[in-house]
Amino acid sequence: MALDTSLVGKPSDPSVFEYDWKTLALYALGIGAKKDELDYLYEKKGPKVIPSFAVVPMFAPMFDRVAATGGDLAMVVHGAQSVRIHATIPSSGKLLTTATIRGIYDMRRFAVVLVDTRTTDHAGAHLFDTTAQIIFRDAGGFGGETPPKEPKVEMPKDRPADFRVEEGTSPEQALLYRLSGDLNPLHADPEFAANVGFAQGPILHGLCTFGHMVRHVARGACGGDATKITAFSAQFRRPVWPGDTFATEGWKLGDGKVGLSMKVTERDEAVLASAWATVAE
After folding, report:
1. How far apart are CA 154 and CA 23, in angstroms?
2. Per-residue pLDDT for the chain (281 aa), expressed as one digit of tens each?
3. What is the 3-state secondary structure (H, E, C) of the chain?
4. CA–CA gap between residue 206 and residue 186 (Å, rounded)
5. At what angle do helices 55-68 and 206-221 cross, to 10 degrees?
6. How far are the Cα atoms of 74, 136, 178, 199, 236 from residue 194, in angstroms, in the given order?
7. Inter-residue contact 225 to 184 (CB < 8 Å)
8. Would you list the domain boundaries of the chain?
9. Quick one: which of 3, 30, 118, 279 is 20 to 30 A from 218 by CA?
């Protein structure tokens, strides 16, 4: 079934997302936060907000736009994600998010949907923007344009990484992360996962990997203070299974930009590409 391109450029109605410190703590645990990251887990600490939390309020309105295209949601894979922070995310409150499909693109076998979101607080202050690249497997070949090319992030080849963070995930990581709103059975149901091509079992959410990456930048480049991270982006290249171990390396490129490489150590396999973050200096 061809995707409905008439939705391109039409913003959704604002989606309301209310949250408190428990919402933030659950998200932080879902992306692997440990007891030494108490600032993001304990209400007496605020708590602070890990900036990748931006993907939580954006998820429902973004996914509603994707679903409205009429594609087969069982064949959906998250291809890439970017976030740009404009102001400190409050520790609780009400957020308003609008989602707009930027374009629907043809990659022969795959169709690619780019969805932009804009989020404000209840008073209208602009907090963050996101862009999600959603891939419909086996939905390409409709004669559309190819997606715009993103600039590549070149890692220095003449020096080692400025930091490396290695961290395991738990076998229950996807079951925990899904409680923040992404209930796709691909991340919970072994039978469903096998039926769509993942015989090894449910895979970890790309956005869970994304959140781990942001935490690793905070640890490696910000002295643990994730609120210094102002933008970040990555393409999801390979599936990750709960229980895999991440190794994230970062190179400081100047002007606050950090180039990133993230692998699963068990397979020595890169799981993110074109990954980067910017840090307030």
Report:
1. 36
2. 588 889 999 999 999 999 999 999 999 999 999 999 999 999 999 899 999 999 999 999 999 999 999 998 888 889 999 999 999 999 999 999 999 999 999 988 889 999 999 999 999 999 999 999 999 988 777 878 888 888 788 888 899 999 999 999 999 999 999 999 999 999 999 999 999 889 999 999 999 999 999 999 999 999 999 999 999 999 999 999 999 999 999 999 999 999 999 999 999 999 999 999 999 97
3. CCCCHHHCCCCCCCEEEEECHHHHHHHHHHCCCCHHHHHHCCHHHCCCCCHHHHHHHHHHHHHHHHHHCCCCHHHEEEEEEEEEECCCCCCCEEEEEEEEEEEEEEECCEEEEEEEEEEEECCCCEEEEEEEEEEECCCCCCCCCCCCCCCCCCCCCCCCCCEEEEEECCCCHHHHHHHHCCCCHHHCCHHHHHHCCCCCCCCCCHHHHHHHHHHHHHHHHCCCCHHHEEEEEEEECCCCCCCCEEEEEEEEEECCEEEEEEEECCCCEECEEEEEEEECC
4. 11
5. 150
6. 12, 17, 19, 4, 20
7. no
8. 5-279
9. 118
Determine the residue type at 207: L
